[in-house]
Every structure is written in structure tokens, then in C-alpha cells.
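Data card: per-record layout.
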Amino acid sequence: MRERLFLLMFLVVLMSFSCRNQGNKNGELVFPEADTIQLAGSEKSGYETVEEISRNISSPVEIANLLQTIGVPFSPDYLASSLDVNKLQTSFSKAVGLGILGADLGYLNMYERTGSSIETLSSIRKLADGIRVGQFFDFEAIKRLSLNKSNLDSLLFISIDSYSRIDSYLRENGRGQLSALMITGVWIEGHYLATQVIASHPDPVLRDRIGEQKIILDDLLLLLSPWCGRDGGFEGLCSDLQKIKEAYSDINISYSPGAPVTVEKDGGLVVTQTETSNVEMSDEQLRNIIQVTKTVRDKLISGN
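The structure for this 304-residue chain is written out next.
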């Protein structure tokens, strides 16, 4: 029950970023410091599209929940421990790093390695302060709860509230592109975790989840598309994500309709159509995805 609660709560974190890319009143997005790029309002992704993208991106807690289900033990080797936040000088790199470390924090908490999360929290604090959103984190409360495993639900709640307020602040101040970068950091770290695990713990469900990321990656590139080619950092990031997309190019995904599911919502019954994905991916294709994902992720955490 607790794992399901964690999954639900972390998905809310991702969905809280759904209103991103809303420009200022003049229809432009303004980057802070040296990262200034202006975009016309017509070039921004629509609210519904971005909301759907955000909703579809798998969270690292969801992945960690799957790993626990199939009996994969916790490993610190999957963490971005070599990420030196002191070397991240731009708001671009700090936002990506904030997403990567947020994913690691979710993984640590899911496996109840909350004592190990203190160092990660310290790095998150530096990055948050670096993009002037540290005021929205109650780090002392998060640190205290991280050391008390009986209060993990409260820990997740405070973290969610912090990220929600950060997102609102960034959007209201014309810096919604940083939310997109945080989402990218979350995705790449979660994808790295899944691909590293399957190399040593083959599992058909995890394999299919990795294959399904072909569609999610298309959505992520759509989310970033307004800035690709307009700035060196974004251009490099989009180029690297395109390399992962190329590794997915020959993978086929089809869907089989499932029985409708009826659930109660807001006092009424809601019928949701379900479907099952069928992923056709060879071992060679999977090995290529594992390798290119590691290369891109390692490049991000090295700061190069």
C-alpha cells in the first residue's frame, strides 16, 4: 500500500509541471543570466500537449517500484554520485542536475535509504539556490524526515509541495523552460536506472517498459523543441536525445485493446479504456539503447 502511495505522489510531482512553457504577458520566454532566448508565443507548446507529455513520462519512483516487485536489490552504483554541483555554472545545467538528483532522491526514498539521501539533499539545495528557487524548499524538515523512516509519507508530501511551488514560481516569472529541463533530467536518470538494471536483471516487464520509452522520448523532444537550435546547451541536449531516439528507430510497438475499467471519481463512475502494448525489440537493439543512454547520461553528470 505504501509503495502505491509513493508512486501516486511522485506522479503528482510530474503532473505539477504540466502548465510549463507559459510565456510572460508579452508572449515571450525570458531566460535568466547568460541564457537569454526569446520565443514568440506561437512557438510554444499548447497546454494540452504539454500536460499529456508530462502525464506520460514515467517517474523514477514508478521504476523503483517495478524493480522492487521483480526482486532487484538496491545499488548505490546507479546513483549520479559523480555529479559535482559546484561545476554546474549555468541555470541550464543546474536545472538538469536538479532533475537528475530529484530522480536519485526518489530512488533512495523508495528503497528506504533515507540516511543516504542527506548528501543528495545538500546537492539539491545548492542547485535550487543556484537558480534562485531554494526558498521553496524546507531543507531542514526534509532532512529531519529523511532520517526518520516512519515519516516517509510526510517526506514525499513536503518534496511534492516544494517542487509544485518552484514550478509555479518559474512559470509566473517567465522561466518555464527550466521546468522542462528538470523533467528531462528526471527522465534521463530514470531511463538510465532501468537500462542499467536490465543488463544484469533481465525481466520481460522491465524490457517492455524500456521499449515503450520510444514514444515517451518523442514527447520529450516535442517538449524541448521550442528551444532546440536556439542555444548551445539546448542544441547539445536535443542532439544527444536524438541519438537515443535513433537507437529506438527500428523498434516496433503495437497495442491490443483491453477490457474497459470502471472507477469511481468525484462521486460518479468513470469508464477508462485499457490497452496492452506489444514491444518488438531485439537483444542487439536493447544493448544499443543501454549504451547510448549511458553515454548521454554520463555526459550530463560530467558537465561536459
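Known properties of this structure: The two ends are 41 Å apart (CA to CA). The chain has one domain: 2-302.

See the next section for split statistics.
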